[in-house]
Amino acid sequence: MNVAVLITGGKDSALALYRALKRGYRVRYLISMFPEREDSWMFHYPNIHMTEFFAEAAEIPLVKGRTAGIKEEEIEDLKNLLARLNIEGVVSGAVASQYQKTRIDNVCRQLGLKSITPLWDEKPEKLLNELIELGFEAIIVGVYALGFSQEWLGRKIDEETVHELLRLHEKFGISPVGEGGEYESLVLDAPYFKKKIQILETETVWKGDQGYLLVKKAKLVQK
Fold first, then answer.
1. Which domains does the chain have, with CATH numbers?
2. Considering only CA atoms, which of 23, 19, 12 is closest in space to residue 124?
């Protein structure tokens, strides 16, 4: 089956792509939506430009879409983009967000496409540990919930980080995988990458008790 994979550059969509490839889907395109506003309901924002490096590292064509990021309208923008592609299914990295999954399911149904959610309803701890075991390299680039501090920005997702995320889940009720927007991640290396991403320059943007690490310069290097 020919499919497109929705990617943000973060860990969930990266793992969904991995599983899609393992299951034998023919990934023809990576899809990345570029919202014009920071508070997009559906699509990640600060480092969305890094999907260009992601796609190049994976050697899969990237199709970029533009959206104003306005609730409900942005999903129509995605629908219009998908309608132009010669595919049979769409893969997304939804884990527990009914908001995301329902809207993507609806778009796929309207277009006659299969909605594929390889990570859906799986335990967050299992997904995080799988990322580490498979050799994904991911860092935290945005924190937006109680319990996080500026020191989390740039932190590698490893066993110690997973332990801390589970502790924050118990204390503050955050999703350990950040499904509620509590944090955002950026994948620098993956099993299917031909090269890996090296960050050269960043800028920390911090407002009150939340913020993000903006990647200003990066390059691909040999693994």
1. 2-116 (3.40.50.620), 124-221 (3.90.1490.10)
2. 12
